[in-house]
Amino acid sequence: MNLTLKVWRQRNRNTEGRIVDYQVQDISPDMSFLEMLDVLNEDLLRKGEEPVVFDHDCREGICGSCNLFINGRAHGPEPGTTTCQLHMRKFSDGDTITIEPWRSSAFPVNKDLSVDRSAFDRIIQAGGYISVNTGGTPDANEIPVPKEIADRAFEAATCIACGACVASCKNSSAMLFVSAKVSQLALLPQGHVERKSRVENMVAQMDKEGFGACSNIGSCAAECPVGISLENIAILNREFLSAKATSNNLA
């Protein structure tokens, strides 16, 4: 396939960016989207031009690093798929493909298509964990957990923190991400001890990072590559209201 790429180029977060047109030729339909970008960068290097910067890591669809906005959709046109697992057979010869970084003030652009998602890390540091003493590995059945609860917690835990929910939300809300982390631990008995302080601290950090409010449109869940459910936002709201009503936080 021969394709026209409209790629966002930006030197750093303090400079203005712009869309630059590129042509790529002889792209195999079996290539992944990132492999196609590799071909583009090889062409640019041969011409003595600066390659396009983009984030990636495992390229197996499980780490969430490959955050690209493709033709107006987070991770591209294939539902339930990360960018690295999107294959070029989803496009046609002669197509024009627009490639942009995540759009959110909480995710400033590092360079080109790479964004700083450390805001998610700080939200997790605020309370997305349980405090336990380290030591030997506990027995798997030491704390009985009903299968239904374990399954729901596992579904929430599949969030890969890619940021597609933020990029696809008109408010740049991080509620789906935060709710998945809160729900995972709120459902399990190991997370009950800190459940009040956890949700208060994580929501406070989310607001501090500048993410927008949730207006329950559902675009986040629609574009989530691992299918995190909107039910988690309902759990987060319930946890937050309960925590505020009985809070020990006097600040």
TrEMBL record:
InterPro entries listed in its UniProt record: 2Fe-2S_ferredoxin-like_sf (IPR036010), 2Fe2S_fd_BS (IPR006058), 4Fe4S_Fe-S-bd (IPR017896), Beta-grasp_dom_sf (IPR012675), Helical_ferredxn (IPR009051), SDH/FRD_Iron-Sulfur (IPR050573), Succ_DH/fum_Rdtase_N (IPR025192)
Boundaries of every 4Fe-4S ferredoxin-type domain copy: 150-180
Origin superkingdom: Bacteria
Cofactor list: [3Fe-4S] cluster; [2Fe-2S] cluster
Pfam families given in the database record: Fer2_3 (PF13085), Fer4_8 (PF13183)
NCBIfam families, per database record: PRK07570.1
Family classification: Belongs to the succinate dehydrogenase/fumarate reductase iron-sulfur protein family.
Protein name (database record): Succinate dehydrogenase
Originating species: Hymenobacter glacieicola
